[in-house]
Write a structure and sequence with these properties.
alpha/beta; Rossmann fold; 2 domains; 6-stranded mixed sheet; 10 strands; globular
């Protein structure tokens, strides 16, 4: 049995300690009311811009908290991670700050710019397969052969506590928040945020957003157990893990109100719309929460709604495709 199945769920005290630990590595990102979205949906729509982190993605929070909990002697053996790109970049970035080595296992289909960014941090990159299961197996093999410490992308209490610091910041900056929409891949982000939000303001609603091409947490919550998908290919590579974590699933069962689906077509539109109307360059995974507005999630009049813009590491190829595709915002699909 996966050890994460028996791992304790982080406490709100763990999240608060994480906030102190990662200060100076991860930024406190802005949360601001977006006028265009607020007018469009007749609600108060706030954007939590994790795309403004030093590596342009929220993953730095969990990676930093995890690695800061590893004793120096053990950390000196190096770290290894399996990632579609963003988690690997976070681990490589923090490893450089902590003066240790990092090996990142990425899929053969990884976004070129993410791989280059990982290498720029001094990490070794290993390409393996196309699925999370394939690259995670390779990372475990490297851990066994080289003695490096494995830093899981989502199914780890300290990683989850680190991501939960986003929830703390939202409640501090917007105490009367009604609803939080969170992109969901393996579940580390929504696990931490939902835990922090529900402990701080229990009436807060927390909804996850997944692509209908990679609905692993959606299907798992409805089945009452973690479900592994045979195919989870989506334009939003950060949302592509084909199975939620054992620990993240348990937390989602307890604290997440529901997981909703949107389409890749809608995510593509939302990424374009963010460029033109919001003047934000965000990756499809971060645009998923915008894609859900007016589709799978209908904002209530006057609702205080926080959207987690999880990252901004969009590939130049996709950006060029979006820019070349006629009008940037020609109506939502």
């Amino acid at each position: 049995m996966d050890s994460s199945f028996r791992a304790p769920i982080p406490t709100i005290e763990d999240v608060r300690r994480a906030a102190k630990a990662i200060k100076g590595i991860a930024y406190r990102t802005p949360l601001y009311r977006n006028e265009a979205l607020s007018r469009r949906f007749n609600a108060n729509v706030f954007l939590k811009l994790e795309s403004y982190q030093p590596i342009r993605v929220f993953k730095i929070r969990g990676a930093a908290n995890k690695m800061l909990h590893i004793d120096s002697a053990t950390l000196g053996r190096g770290v290894v991670a399996a990632s579609s790109g963003n988690h690997g970049l976070a681990v490589a970035y923090v490893a450089r700050l902590l003066e240790t080595t990092a090996t990142i296992v990425v899929p053969t289909s990884a976004v070129k710019e993410k791989v280059e960014a990982i290498k720029e941090q001094g990490a070794r990159v290993v390409e393996q397969g196309r699925t999370h299961a394939e690259r995670y197996a390779r990372a475990m093999q490297i851990q066994k052969e080289e003695g490096a410490v494995l830093v899981h992308p989502f199914d780890d209490p300290e990683v989850i506590a680190g991501q939960g610091t986003i929830g703390l910041e939202i409640l501090e900056d917007l105490p009367d928040v009604d609803t939080i929409l969170v992109p969901v891949g393996g579940g580390g982000l929504i696990s931490g945020i939902s835990l922090a939000a529900k402990k701080g303001k229990p009436e807060t609603k927390v909804y996850g957003i997944q692509s209908d091409r990679a609905p692993s947490m959606y299907e798992s919550l409805r089945a009452g157990k973690p479900i592994r998908l045979d195919d989870s290919a989506t334009i939003a590579d950060g949302l592509a893990p084909g199975e939620p974590g054992q620990l993240t699933f348990r937390i989602a069962q307890e604290y997440v109100d529901d997981v909703l689906l949107t389409s890749d077509e809608r995510i593509r539109w939302a990424t374009r719309m963010a460029l033109r109307t919001l003047h934000l360059m965000i990756e499809p995974s971060g645009a998923a929460v915008i894609a859900a507005l007016g589709q799978s999630y209908q904002p209530k009049k006057g609702e205080n709604l926080a959207l987690i813009i999880s990252g901004g590491n969009i590939s130049l190829k996709l950006l060029r495709e979006l820019l070349d595709n006629g009008h940037l915002d020609n109506g939502a699909p």
